[in-house]
């Protein structure tokens, strides 16, 4: 029962959903969010960060390149990370400039930086926790949005902090990562967002 619960948590908070989750979070918090702005960003970002990666996953799985959606080995992680970098660049150069949203642009810049860092670490045979990298990114972005828009979302931040702890527990329980891999993943996620705050906060 416990195993199934933690597996479910790992699926719900899969890094695949983090870019889209951050986008929805932004439009929920942003005071000047309009329907036109939302429709111009949310659907293309959903297609590029969820639908297309799932299609690539199915292709790579059929080719025998990857074995699971959780990418257990270092070799399996390289191709999805390359694909993620290309998709993030497409969002930064094609989607967001056409429906310009400053804060969201830098959120995706941070995600691209984090993904690039995770890819570089793979060449040093270090498997970063993508789950915690995603949670660290979105948590930092959430806190930054709260300060930027001067909106009190302390409850939401507290809940997400608890969820981050739950995801950490699930990854450790399932023996998917070591403590170091989880810590570095969270650190990469947070730092990649923090270093670009000076450009928009």
Structure description:
Helix 5 (102-123) packs antiparallel against helix 6 (130-148). The protein is mainly alpha-helical and 201 residues long. The N and C termini lie far apart (44 Å). It is 76% helix and 0% strand. It is built from eight helices and no strands. The chain has helices spanning 2-12, 18-29, 35-62, 74-98, 102-123, 130-148, 154-173, 179-194.
Q: Specify Rg, calculated over alpha carbons.
A: 16 Å
Oligomer: single chain
Total domain modules? 1
Helical fraction: over 70%
List the SSEs and their pairings.
Elements: H1 2-12, H2 18-29, H3 35-62, H4 74-98, H5 102-123, H6 130-148, H7 154-173, H8 179-194
Helix pairs in contact: 1-7, 2-3, 2-5, 2-6, 3-4, 4-5, 5-6, 5-8, 6-7, 6-8
Properties at a glance:
single chain; 201 residues; mainly alpha; globular
Put the structure in a nutshell.
The chain has 201 residues and is mainly alpha-helical. The protein has 8 helices and no strands.
């Amino acid at each position: 029962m416990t195993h199934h619960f933690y597996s479910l948590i790992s699926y719900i908070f899969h890094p695949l959903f983090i870019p889209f989750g951050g986008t929805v979070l932004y439009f929920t918090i942003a005071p000047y969010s309009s329907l036109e702005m939302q429709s111009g960003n949310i659907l293309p970002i959903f297609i590029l960060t969820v639908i297309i990666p799932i299609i690539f996953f199915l292709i790579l799985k059929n080719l025998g390149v990857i074995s699971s959606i959780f990418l257990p080995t270092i070799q399996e992680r390289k191709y999805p990370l390359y694909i993620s970098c290309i998709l993030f660049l497409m969002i930064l150069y094609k989607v967001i400039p056409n429906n310009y949203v400053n804060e969201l642009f830098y959120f995706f810049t941070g995600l691209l930086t984090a993904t690039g860092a995770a890819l570089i670490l793979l060449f040093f045979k270090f498997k970063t926790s993508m789950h915690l990298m995603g949670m660290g990114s979105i948590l930092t972005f959430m806190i930054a949005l709260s300060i930027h828009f001067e909106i009190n979302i302390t409850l939401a931040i507290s809940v997400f902090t608890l969820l981050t702890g739950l995801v950490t527990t699930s990854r450790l329980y399932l023996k998917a990562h070591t403590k170091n891999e989880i810590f570095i993943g969270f650190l990469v996620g947070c730092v990649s967002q923090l270093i670009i705050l000076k450009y928009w906060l």
